[in-house]
Amino acid sequence: MHDDATPFTHQPAVEAHHEVHIDWKTYRWVALILFVITVAEVWAYYIPGFSATRWFVPMILILGTVKFAIVVMFYMHLKYDAKLFRALFVGPLTIAICILIALMFLFAKMSIHTG
Amino acid sequence: MATAVAHAPEHKHYTSTGLDNTKVAIWAFIGSECFFFASLISTYLIYKGHSLVGPFPHETWTDPATGRLYQPILNIPVTSFSAFVLLMSSLSMVLAHSAVLRGDKKYSKIWLLATIVMGTMFLCMQAFEFTSFVHEGLTLQRNLFGSTFFVLTGFHGAHVAAGVLWLTTLLFIDIKRGLEPRDGINVDVCALYWHFVDVVWIAIFALVYLIK
Fold it and tell me: CB–CB of A85 and B3 under 8 A?
């Protein structure tokens, strides 16, 4: 009985022993890109001519999504880690975003006038 | 018996998937946190623009009863700086994790401390923001914006505070006995939580502060 349990306990799959090592140079570039995107977001906010256009909101959403994806892929090393972790994060995130969008559409159809 | 002793210092508990169950647990927790913050963000967005009385986030408002003029309440320069600080704390967190894996005891302490300092700076700026909002007349009960804003950013701040406490315990352990490469998983789990708190702020910063 004990011998049957041993393989799982002491000889885990190769994937488990795979420690993710990303070098300092990659981390530095990621930080720089995140900084530049944040500056671009704030810069766009302060341009009245641009922030009033219909391009402003999509641009902020895209830049925010890029920042989100970069942090998740490189700092949370989901790009290099096991597929199960990716499923545990991306699955609930996708459902949550779908619920958020569905609620936005639902409430946009309703008139809410409470103070 | 010999095998068990040989593997004991690794402090790793593998599931039948071959993955460390601590990491599986933290990713499952982060997945559940996605639902939690999505519910708060969707509540904010649903009620956005439906407040009947000011102050408002991006517009001026004059109170008809008192004639008092309320300026747009969000302080974008301060929040941009706090967003930058939290992003940089993610960098120091990955460097702390990397130092622990290398067995570099000096830099593991430095980067852990840097992350704690930046997390505390973020909390201080949030406390400043909340205090100034209350002084300017925006409270939890004032309007829909106040209710949804304080609940959303307040819960995020509570998560940051929990992260700072977690990091402080890691730094305390590092000072007390030194974090070894075999402790990498403990730092990794804390780092994943910290980065998640950072990505939530990326979403809040874009949706609450920048989009008018």
Answer: no
pLDDT in tens, B128-160: 999 999 998 889 988 899 999 999 999 999 999
Q: Between residues 77 and 96 of chain B, which touch chain A (CB distance below 8 Å)?
A: 80, 83-84, 87-88, 90-91, 93-95
By Cβ distance, the residue of B12, B38, B53 closest to A100 is B38
**SS3 annotation, chain B:** CHHHHHHHHHCCCECCCCCEHHHHHHHHHHHHHHHHHHHHHHHHHHHCCCCCCCCCCCCCEECCCCCCEECCCCCHHHHHHHHHHHHHHHHHHHHHHHHHHHCCHHHHHHHHHHHHHHHHHHHHHHHHHHHHHHHCCCCCCCCHHHHHHHHHHHHHHHHHHHHHHHHHHHHHHHHHCCCCHHHHHHHHHHHHHHHHHHHHHHHHHHHHHHCC
| Residues in B touching A13 (Cβ below 8 Å) | 17-19
